[in-house]
Specification:
The protein contains four helices and seven strands, in the order βαβαββααβββ. The chain has helices at residues 12-22, 39-49, 84-89, 92-95; strands at 2-8, 28-32, 64-68, 72-77, 101-105, 119-127, 130-136. The termini are close together. The structure holds adenosine-5'-diphosphate and magnesium ion (MG). One of its GO terms (cellular component) is cytoplasm.
Length: 137
């Protein structure tokens, strides 16, 4: 199914709640959208909505950030990755098959490794503070 949501930065927590409610059995989320569109920002809101209270930072340089709130939460950013082999080296297939929460920016290299159940979020910039989210779930 598909759902569209327009949201401002003030509405991001409410938006995260809706995103998590769409398919409660899906724990893999992939994010498409240009640099600066808001992938990291909505992922921060989603991780907060899952009950994690600490600081969430961008994994652009670290590749993977890991959080724990009773469940494991992984935030990936594959922007700098050039080849699929680099992802196989870090064991990406295991990360996405373990039923942990995974939030993935720049997911194109792993498109064919995704499990049956995942949620795809496409973000478009409408104006400085407004974004359009198209969610396939
Ligand atoms: N509605 C919105 N949703 C998300 N980010 C927004 C919104 N409005 C403004 N912004 C700003 O846009 C920027 C998005 O950056 P970021 O989330 O790092 O993008 P990306 O991870 O896609 O490169 C942030 O500076 C954020 O404050
Ligand atoms: Mg980012």
């Amino acid at each position: 199914m598909t759902k569209d949501i327009n949201y401002s930065i003030e509405e991001i927590d409410k938006t995260a709640k809706i995103v998590l409610s769409l398919n409660p059995s899906a724990k893999i989320f992939i994010f498409n959208g240009e640099m600066g569109s808001g992938k990291t920002t909505i992922i921060k809101a989603l991780i907060k909505e899952l009950g994690y209270e600490g600081t969430v930072s961008s994994p652009t340089f670290s590749l993977i950030n890991e959080y724990f709130n009773g469940n494991k939460i992984y935030h990936f950013d594959f922007y700098r990755i050039k080849s699929r082999n680099e992802l196989l080296d870090i064991g990406i297939d295991e990360y996405i098959s373990r039923n942990d929460w995974c939030f993935i920016e720049w997911p194109s290299l792993i498109a064919d490794m995704l499990p049956d159940k995942y949620i795809e979020l496409n973000i478009d910039v409408i104006s400085n503070d407004d974004r359009k989210l198209r969610i396939n779930y």
